[in-house]
Amino acid sequence: MQKILLLIFFMSCSASFHAQTTDLRKMKSQQRKEYLMKLAKEVVMNFGPDYYRDYKEPEISKKQVFEDDSEGIPEVMRNAGRPYYTVTLFYDREKEQLAEKFAAAIDIWADDGEPMRVLFGNGMGINFFFNPYREWTKAGVKDSEKMHFQTFSF
To answer: Distance between CA 37 and CA 20 in Å, rounded?
Structure first.
């Protein structure tokens, strides 16, 4: 009986450890930068690998505040006022042309370190308001859910 209780205790500790969030606001600058860069690449590789570019150093924005423009959608409204960072991946505009000036821009919540959304160079994007990133990737991202490459035509 003690072994079973001990096993249950360790399993619950392990589950709570993995459920903890990553507060980027409490990280040192270099640690936060590394976390944001790694997660941004992971998000793009999961949802739009055709848009990943190693062209030049990605840009990380200063902390911003999310403004709700959803016109009453509860899943979006409840995030109003939350801080986030944007990691922008660029592409060589002399070699290809996209609708945006970036290959991908990934917004990541500052208070829990989770992705909010990813916008791709074709002007389209995916948000994680309704289907959280970790749940989506854990279930497996289907090919039909990925953003496929599209160039911009004049």
So the answer is: 20
Q: Is residue 16 part of a domain?
A: no
Domain of residue 89: give its range. 22-145
110, 79 in Cβ contact below 8 A?
A: no
Rounded Cα–Cα distance for residues 81 and 77 (Å): 9
Task: Tell how far CA 27 is from the center of its chain.
Answer: 17
CA distance 74 to 114: 19
Kind and range of the H or E element at 35? helix 29-47
> What's the total number of domains in the chain?
1
Q: What is the pLDDT along the chain (154 residues), one digit of tens a residue?
A: 554 433 344 444 434 333 457 999 999 999 999 999 999 999 999 999 999 999 899 999 999 999 988 888 999 999 999 999 999 999 999 999 999 999 999 999 999 999 999 999 999 999 999 999 999 999 999 999 999 998 765 5
User: Could you tell me the pTM of the whole model?
Assistant: 0.84
In a domain, 1, yes or no: no
